[in-house]
Amino acid sequence: MSDSQKQVAQSIGVPVARRHIFLCCDQTNPKCCEKERGLAAWDHLKRRLKELGLSEQGGILRTKANCLRICEGGPIAVVYPDGTWYGRCDPPVLERIIQEHLIGGSVVAAHLIEEHPLGP
Known about the structure:
This protein is 32% helix and 19% strand. It is α+β, with helices and mostly antiparallel strands and 120 residues long. It has a five-stranded mixed sheet, with helices on one face. The longest helix has 17 residues, at 35-51. The radius of gyration is 14 Å and the shape is globular.
């Protein structure tokens, strides 16, 4: 790995990450929800993580995914390392996921699709 890659990884908080949320949005060919809904959800997630000090060195990584392959009931999100998959992740649902799961550590059962942590 180059020094510049290490610096970028450090600047986005990779060494201090506790959780990583992926959000399906901005698809080439939207299937799970309208493109505008997905982008609105992404904007909310990005803004709120920053406002709450959870981005960068705050312990939460975020990634915009083109498709998480559950092509209905979106936007879809998955939180790792928990392996917790959520549906209908419009801004109010994402706010609950941020508050209850990313901060509080509790699964938001009302929007849970599946839970399967990856591990050895």
